TrEMBL record:
Pfam families recorded: BTK (PF00779), C2 (PF00168), PH (PF00169), RasGAP (PF00616)
Domain Ras-GAP: 331-525
BP terms from Gene Ontology: intracellular signal transduction
Name of the protein: RAS p21 protein activator 3
Length: 852
């Protein structure tokens, strides 16, 4: 979800690898061990949770998490919890990274010391205040000074234990006085509107003095006074109300201006507690990649995009813009991700990969090493398979992977690692059955392989067979090195990375999957000496089960099917594809003026406003055919909505039910599902996937109501008729292809950013082209890292790239200058206390004479 900023879209995303924790403090009980899990939080909102690693002080998680960030945030935080069966889970420690510091750790494995978690430091949100200092002349002619403090509203307060009932206290404090006042409690909202004014007498009445707002004798004392605003969550728990954040403002700043209105970020409270030493709590290994893309309208990218999309037609392909990007990037993966997405979006991926693969095959001398390196070709094909083949993996492998994870059959075949009571022959038989089943479903899945993958495999097969005409097996190994070695085997080994399981498997299951993956990889390789592929003797013994010609024949038949041109018709797969599932809260309403709801308890009928008891937790399941929900996972569906009956999927404003992260699924006959997700990321995921799968429906709505119909009227537009057409346009159309929802402009912006980052290498490559053109002797060492087959063509492309990147750089710089002129510090978008904006101000002050 992009944030719109005057002709510019801002996308935020984060990719996180949660590695492991080490040296956690021991549990105070006799066992000493802990059952720990890690959460990922945007400020105080949890958006991801790892599995629980039991009985360990050095838990290994090995989990990856990616999300598009749909809102602003200040901190990316990681909390390590110790599970407690009888009480609330306890927090061991946390890692909090400020948004402006994320680039320091970009794509680097880093050990972070866990910090002590203090409830008074766990704050988020902002408050809108207006302060006014005025002189009041009493009936007796004397003058006093009064301070009016207006608490208007707050935004983004944290939800504590599932609820937020905030109120504010306003205190005027000085060396010899303290006076406090309190707002009303606002129920069930983390964006409260208070709009309450509190008056404080700042100075004692005295004779009027025109020279100063303050009496001379009180100036020093007033300079030491401050106004403090504290936010609290009204709690029914015996521990008292929870602190949400505070703001301290000295009164002396009002001596320049008697009135001041601004937004402020809430700050933690300094309570003087002694913090623990950092090494007392252990450490956590993380790899964080935070990306913020500022995307202009499409026409800005036309010059650079045109150069990139012509890459497949450039001769030689090493002189193309896409190939050059792979040459200058530090890692080929950096270049492959945006390139593949861009070419997929414009339907140019097959000719592009065919061109770079053919060039790589021509440079390969040994058919046994074909496509075995981490080249741009290999990385691009890997990325294409991940994007286009995700649902193919779901249909093919997920059922049996789920069974392996749930049943926990013993499959250890290493005699040294056998547990007490296990039988080696029984374990071999269990493993053989699993391998046989997975091998069978893979080799019979050729008809389901995505067309784009098949077209690429056909190209690989043809290039390899033409280059090595004397090797009859190379047409198979060129394809198997991708489909088995880089697709199926990694998915079996790490199913969580391919969305086949939500978390990294437990150690026993992980070991079983490792053994299966090794065997499948060897079966697919078609090497002539299979046993020699295994370093472990127990694997060579186990593989004897599969030394039959029927396995090699099955692999070849499968590879022939997925790499043959025109091998099948392009009918859609009839088997439903599972797109998403999970637990959400639900209420159903028919907009007919009556408050009738499904699955409501009797006393809920006729309520003026729906409460939490009207919402029931249900297991939701979305396929490309229907949207269903049931009481629990695996139960018979309570309701099934055909995809063609989904008329719109939109967010629901918080005011409707005083609940966050809500959305609505609108159906015919004015039936509406009101659904609450667990967090903002999950809500966005459900809205996106439901919108994508239903957007081609002929009867989709063009307008909708962003709030509910309650108490006889629509809360958004106040219309009283229940059949009033919507008051807000529906979300704009999205790409119909569920698998490949790609923003071409965003990918071009990312490629521009990479070219800009590696501009010194581009310039060095230009020098290398010049050197090759005029000097045909031994190659200079500093230029030897570049593949330059045609210096003149490469130089021409480099010139176009540098020119396009330079133009975009100028547009970005101009946008920053314009934004800098218009931005006000203390506005709702940039509250006082915004460190990232303060950094931005310092940067702009160095290049601009303008001030805020």
């Amino acid at each position: 979800m992009a944030v719109e900023e005057e002709g510019l879209r801002v996308f935020q995303s984060v990719r996180i690898k949660i590695g492991e924790a080490k040296n956690l403090p021991t549990y105070p009980g006799p066992n000493k061990m802990r059952d720990c899990y890690c959460t990922v939080n945007l400020d105080q909102e949890e958006v991801f949770r790892t599995k629980i690693v039991e009985k360990s002080l050095c838990p290994f998680y090995g989990e990856d998490f990616y999300c598009e960030i749909p809102r602003t945030f200040r901190h990316l935080s990681f909390y390590i919890f110790d599970r407690d069966v009888f009480r609330r889970d306890s927090i061991i420690g946390k890692v909090a990274i400020q948004k402006e510091d994320l680039q320091k750790y970009h794509n680097r494995d880093t050990w972070f010391q866990l910090q002590h978690v203090d409830a008074d430091s766990e704050v988020q949100g902002k408050v809108h205040l207006e302060l006014r200092l005025s002189e009041v002349i009493t009936d007796t002619g004397v003058v006093c000074h009064k301070l009016a403090t207006r608490v208007l509203e707050c935004q983004g307060l944290p939800i504590v234990n599932g609820q937020c009932d905030p109120y504010a206290t306003v205190t005027l404090a000085g060396p010899s006085r303290s006076e406090a006042k309190k707002t009303k409690v606002k129920k069930k909202t983390n964006n409260p509107h208070f709009d309450e004014v509190f008056y404080f007498e700042v100075t004692r009445p005295s004779s009027y003095n025109k020279k100063s707002h303050f009496d001379i004798e009180d100036v020093d004392e007033v300079d030491k006074m401050e106004i403090r605003v504290d936010l609290w969550n009204a709690s029914n728990l015996k521990f008292g109300d929870e602190f949400l954040g505070e703001l301290r403002l000295p009164l002396k700043f009002l001596r320049q201006s008697s009135s001041y209105e601004a937004w402020y970020f809430l700050q933690p409270r300094d309570n003087g507690n002694k913090s623990l030493k950092p090494d007392d709590l252990g450490s956590l290994r993380l790899n964080v990649v935070y990306t913020e893309d500022h995307v202009f309208s499409s026409d800005y990218y036309s010059p650079l995009r045109d150069v990139l999309l012509k890459s497949a037609d450039v001769e030689p392909v090493s002189a193309s813009a896409a190939h050059i990007l792979g040459e200058v990037c530090r890692e080929k993966q950096e270049a492959a991700i945006p390139l593949v997405r861009l070419f997929l979006h414009y339907g140019r991926i097959v000719p592009f990969i065919s061109a770079i693969a053919n060039a790589e095959v021509k440079r390969t001398q040994d058919p046994n090493t074909i496509f075995r390196g981490n080249s741009l070709t290999s990385k691009c094909i890997d990325e294409t398979m991940k994007l286009a083949g995700m649902h193919y993996l779901q249909v093919t492998l997920k059922p049996i992977i789920d069974e392996i994870c749930q049943v926990h059959k013993p499959c250890e075949i290493d005699p040294v690692k056998l547990k007490d009571g296990e039988n080696l022959e029984n374990n071999r038989e269990n493993l053989r059955q699993y391998v046989d089943r997975i091998f069978t479903v893979i080799t019979k899945s050729g008809v389901s392989c995505p067309t784009v993958m098949c077209d690429i495999f056909f190209s690989l097969r043809e290039s390899a067979a033409k280059r090595f005409q004397g090797d009859l097996d190379v047409r198979y190994t060129a394809v198997s090195s991708f489909i088995f070695l880089r697709f199926f085997a990694p998915a079996i080994l790490s199913p969580n990375l391919f969305q086949l399981t939500p978390h990294h498997p437990d150690p026993q299951t992980s070991r079983t999957l490792t053994l299966i993956s090794k065997t499948i990889q060897t079966l697919g390789s078609l090497s002539k000496s299979k046993s020699a592929n295994f370093k472990e003797s127990y694997m060579a013994i186990f593989y004897d089960y599969f030394n039959e010609q029927k396995y090699a024949d099955a692999v070849k038949n499968f590879l022939d099917l997925i790499s043959s041109s025109g091998r099948r018709d392009h009918k859609s797969i009839e088997q439903p594809i599972l797109l998403k599932e999970g637990t959400l809260k639900l209420t159903v309403k028919k907009v007919d003026g009556n408050s009738s709801c499904r699955f409501m308890i009797k006393r809920a009928q006729g309520r003026k406003r729906f409460g939490m008891k009207n919402f029931k937790k249900r297991w939701f399941r979305l396929t490309n055919h229907e949207f269903t929900y049931q009481k629990s996972k695996g139960d018979h569906p309570l309701c099934s909505i055909p995809i063609e009956n989904i008329l719109a999927v939109e967010r629901l404003e918080e005011e409707s039910f005083k609940m966050k992260n809500m959305f609505q699924v609108i159906q015919p006959e004015r039936r509406v599902l009101y659904i609450q997700a667990n967090n903002c990321v999950e809500a966005k995921d459900w809205i996106d996937i439901l919108t994508k799968v239903s957007q081609c429906n002929k009867k989709r709505l063009t307008v909708y109501h962003p709030s509910a119909y309650l108490n006889g009227h629509w809360l958004c537009c106040k219309a009283t008729a229940d059949n009033t057409p919507g008051c807000t346009p529906c979300t704009g159309g999205l790409p119909a292809n569920i698998q490949l929802d790609i923003d071409g402009d965003r990918e071009t912006e990312r490629i521009y950013s990479l070219f800009n980052l590696y501009m010194p290498k581009l310039e060095k490559m230009q020098e290398a082209c010049g050197s090759k053109s005029v000097y045909d002797g031994p190659e200079e060492e500093e230029y030897s890292t570049f593949i330059i087959d045609d210096p003149k063509e490469t130089y021409k492309t480099l010139k176009l790239i540098i020119e396009g990147v330079g133009n975009l750089e100028q547009e970005h710089a101009q946008y920053k200058r314009d934004k800098f002129k218009k931005t006000k510090y203390g506005s709702q978008e940039h509250p006082i206390g915004d460190k990232s904006f303060q950094t931005y101000i310092r940067q702009q002050s160095e290049i601009s004479a303008h001030s805020i």
